[in-house]
Design a protein that fits this description.
alpha/beta; about 20% strand; about 325 residues; six-stranded mixed β-sheet; homodimer; 2 domains; Rossmann fold; globular; 12 strands; Dihydrodipicolinate Reductase, domain 2
């Protein structure tokens, strides 16, 4: 399967390492033979239609900070040129989420779809701003559009709700969808001030370059958009979310929650309304997990409330979700 | 789809109510039109090849304690006679689990398979004692064998591990698979003695008629057998489990756990060895849920540890898992 990788950060590098370490197993078990024919990052690109060397890609990126130096050529294609000119089956989009105009991810995705490529995105920007129209574009161009890694990292939350609960009717859900704010709130509950807890999270590398994505709830809201569209069949985008972050949470709020035998968490919920907001969760509720964990509770008509808990981020974890999407695409293609 | 129901207790009654209340939706969305052509319980049976009235079945059972009085006939077929003589597509086996010889469930299942019927079982006995050979028998007779409801009730634990984590390699798992013992241990942690906690659980109807199934860990061990076979590809049966129940747990054990900032739970685990035993779980571990909840944590190679929590029992919940199995069978049949 011919793949174009767009973005070559932690997630994409974890993915190619996964390809490398599991190549035999993936072929034997699933008939998947991933061939990376092109990679581009913000500084340049590398192309080889017969397949790039995965280890050389990682080495090049490590040494030069870009894949551009993979070959000894002065000029390299732009991402858009690559998508338009290099034949591939799947685009894997891993550039950073941007909730203003969703670029450059949006153009990558739409260009690839129009060229008849299947698309896997772990970039939440395009989905948050244009989920309904991207799904239409995919249908119109008869390509598959997968995004397992956008919610829950390696924890298959979207798949669980859509597939494992098939035949059920999910009536509402609520979750901790952002590990960074959970980490900050967990530390505040041990007495740290917001500022100290934020500093600690930053030192550990948990906070996005644009801290607003975490602190103002944008990341959680983007995931809520994806869940609402995919699981509940709603047609909504980011502006439809009533979103409050954690900047105004005080030690007093945390103490008040404790008095109620509860913990304060940033909760994204879908129950008639779509809301992201700090909320008290009772200590007996499985949803109230600590540290950087993510958790989501689905309430369904017949089988009660079910909670899934897991790491919401991480390079290898997110790469494993991309691999799942790829296996799905492989299987669908094999059917036809 | 022609269905024979074997056993007509809480689960089977919840199932026919589900058929009734969702008949339009099931047909429109999934093309499923369940037609119950035969039902038998321990006292007798009811048959109508054109389809039994679901509401009349429930009424009859309520009034007479058996479905035998559905029609005004003196004699009714035995279960085995029905399986041998009434044409049907699927047997749904819901009689009580028995870990001595797995009867009568075992004979129902093998008879149905040999007649070419697909089988859905929520009876754990036959699976605990003969999982590997039942799978072989199903393969040999080219029928589907489904058992989602045996582990986790309505919480799709088996499906999650098998399907949502496809492409992953699960390396170990551990879980609270029996809600009754969890309820007893939770109450003991508030100071109740084992005897009082057991009495309370019995009063609430949580304890099996044969209390040993819960207290000696047999129910948890049976579920562990199913998980080990289905998820890990092991070929094991009940005697392979190293099983200790909760009868010897003392208030001192519970207090000791508390000192270690932990809670004492009956844990079924697969990590080289297959063990059911009381074990301390750290308070920060999402696995340590309270009350009658079930929880299981799967650790996989790339996506870390993921915990699923939900109600492990209940008529409607388990019926919803049977419905999922039925939809799977419907979909598979439609493919051919």
């Amino acid at each position: 399967m011919r793949i174009i990788l767009c973005g070559f950060g932690v997630v994409a590098q974890s993915l190619v390492k996964l390809f490398d370490s599991r190549s035999e197993d993936l072929y034997a078990k699933y008939g998947l033979k991933p061939r990376v024919v092109g990679v581009f990052d913000s500084k340049g690109s590398a192309v080889d239609v017969s397949g790039l060397s995965l280890s050389k890609l990682v080495e090049t990126k490590k040494k030069f900070g870009t894949v551009k130096n993979y070959a000894n050529t002065k000029n390299s294609m732009s991402g858009i040129e690559m998508l338009k000119n290099v034949e591939a089956d799947v685009l894997i989009e891993t550039t950073a989420s941007n909730y203003k105009d969703a670029e450059p991810g949006m153009t990558h995705i739409t260009t690839a779809m129009k060229k008849g490529m299947h698309v896997i995105s772990v970039n939440k920007g395009p989905l948050a701003l244009a989920f309904p129209s991207l799904m239409e574009l995919a249908t119109y161009n008869q390509v598959m559009f997968k995004f397992s890694g956008t919610v829950g990292g390696g924890t298959p939350i979207l798949d669980y709700a859509k597939n494992s609960l098939r035949g059920e009717r999910i009536t509402s859900f609520a979750g901790i969808l952002n590990g960074t704010t959970n980490y900050i709130l967990t530390n505040m509950s041990t007495g740290l001030s917001f500022e100290s807890a934020l500093k600690d999270a930053q030192d550990k590398g948990y906070v996005e370059a644009d801290e607003s994505l975490d602190l103002d709830g944008l990341d959680a809201a983007a995931k809520l958009v994806i869940l609402a569209n995919w699981i509940m069949g709603m047609k909504v985008t980011l502006p439809d979310i009533d979103c409050t972050g954690i900047r105004k949470v005080t030690i007093e709020d945390i103490k008040k929650a404790e008095k109620n035998n509860s913990v304060l968490k940033l909760i994204a919920s879908c129950d008639n309304k779509l809301v992201v907001s700090p909320k008290e969760i009772h200590k007996d509720d499985p949803l109230g997990v600590n540290g950087t964990l993510n958790a989501i509770a689905f309430t369904s008509e017949h089988s009660g409330t079910q909670t899934i808990i897991g790491k919401g981020a991480g390079g290898t974890e997110t790469a494993s979700s991309i691999l799942r999407d790829l296996l799905d695409i492989r299987q669908e293609i094999a059917k036809n």
